[in-house]
Design a protein that fits this description.
20% strand, 20 strands, single chain, ten-stranded mixed β-sheet, alpha/beta
């Protein structure tokens, strides 16, 4: 059996949580493979909204009895995890029977969050725009071999390991001219209490678990966080996240060999959004951008920050399809563009030297805000001017929308197999 991957193709916030929820019924296992609580996956059904930050989105699948795994590539904040998990258990979800946590996942320490804030402050106008959740410092510790892992909580000398890691961070904070806040003792006590709660779950060698499950013929969906354009290697560096958000990240983040990978579902919005700093070629600074934000409720699920909005960028989308080996495209929030007379798509970039390209360049520029050094070249399409929220059958889609869809498929070279026309799990059209 092969594992399928579902991931974002833009700058995150594409709607991965909803689609995992829709697809999960067909899988035995749903596994998160990277990222941390900076990524909020939103699911809406039965008139309620749920935001999952660390826990896989398969926990809601049809009164689920599916196995959900937090993989080794994830970084985990025990406090935020405990808040999220307890809230789910209060809603009647038997999370202890559903969830497995990799012993090799790295822990976010209270001091990691302080280092994150100090690092952003030091960058000044060049700040990345992180969520301040300590993600970057935790991955930095992982790479520099100073990290603390979930499995360490089971060792007899965990307290010694923790204090060693904490002191190292304190030294770094002092060197940066920062220090511990007055309430640090309270923060630490809360963190240690959350560690005890974390240890009440089944902590596993997840690489063995997933490979044995595939050998036994079980099906698995690998759930990515953020988006391809935030990948630390292939995104709009340096304004990126700290992990590999692309399909290859599922191999390293779960312990899967490349031959184990089957379908790759790539999710994108009918337009583009971005949260935080970094160049964004198709960003709209006018009333059209504000209208897309208003209609699409484009505010961060975790941070509440306004998302920057712009037209669909086919240069970036083609690049993401290539990097990930996407086999199936999924288009989200088509309904947000229902009322526009004209819809634009960026088909090429004009570079600073005046030349044009349809290939994603080495850099979009070092400007933290706005378009950077790239000028988008647009193709315009007539809007469909019809409410898509009530459409459930592909045959009922307006001709203008079908033309827009056909253009995207031809430009990307991949079929759009799922359309989302609203936030609820029922507002989904499966295409064959």
């Amino acid at each position: 059996m092969k594992a399928d991957i579902l991931l974002g193709l833009q700058w995150g916030d594409e709607g991965k949580g909803k689609i995992v929820d829709v697809l999960a019924a067909d899988y035995d296992i749903v596994a998160r493979f990277q990222g941390g609580p900076n990524a909020g996956h939103t699911l809406e059904f039965d008139g309620r909204k749920h935001v999952l930050r660390s826990i896989p989105s398969g926990v809601f699948a049809n009164g689920s009895t599916k196995v959900n795994i937090i993989g080794n590539g994830v970084v985990l904040d025990p406090v935020l995890f405990a808040e999220e998990a307890r809230a789910l258990e209060n809603e009647g979800i038997d999370l202890h029977s559903l969830l497995r946590i990799s012993k090799k996942a790295h822990l976010i320490l209270p001091t990691d969050r302080l280092l994150d804030a100090a690092g952003e402050k030091a960058k000044g106008a060049s700040k990345i725009g992180t969520t301040g959740k300590g993600i970057g410092p935790t991955y930095t510790d992982k790479v520099s071999r100073h990290g603390l892992r979930v499995g360490d909580t089971l060792t007899a000398d965990f307290e010694t390991r923790y204090h060693r890691a904490r002191q190292r961070h304190i030294d770094m904070l002092e060197a940066a001219g920062a220090g511990l806040p007055d309430n640090f003792g309270e923060m630490e006590a809360k963190w240690l209490d959350a560690i005890n709660y974390l240890d009440s779950f089944e902590l596993v060698d997840s690489e063995h678990l997933v490979n044995k499950a595939l050998d036994e013929g079980k099906s698995m969906l690998c759930e990515g966080a953020q988006g391809t354009m935030l990948d630390v290697d292939f995104g709009s560096y340096p304004y990126v996240t700290s992990s590999n958000t692309i399909a290859a990240g599922a191999c390293t983040g779960l312990g899967l060999a490349p031959r184990r990978i089957g379908r790759v579902y790539g999710i994108f919005k009918a337009y583009c959004t971005r949260v935080g700093s970094g160049p964004f070629p198709t960003e709209l600074f006018d009333e059209t951008g504000a209208e897309i934000r208003r209609i699409g409720h484009e505010y961060g699920a975790v941070t509440g920050r306004e998302r920057r909005c712009g037209w669909l960028d086919m240069v970036a989308l083609r690049y993401a399809v290539m990097i990930n080996g996407v086999t199936d495209l999924i288009m989200m929030k088509s309904d947000v563009l229902d009322g526009f007379d004209t819809i634009k798509v960026c088909t090429a970039y004009r570079l600073p030297d005046g030349s044009t390209t349809e290939d994603f360049p080495y850099s979009l520029g070092d400007n933290a805000e706005g378009k950077g050094d790239i000028e988008p070249i647009y193709e315009s399409f007539p809007g469909w001017k019809q409410n898509l929220c009530e459409v459930r059958n592909e045959d009922d889609l307006p001709a203008e929308f079908k033309n827009y869809l056909a253009f995207i498929e031809k430009a990307a070279g991949v079929h759009v197999t799922i359309l989302s026309v609203g936030p609820d799990r029922t507002q989904t059209i499966i295409r064959h």
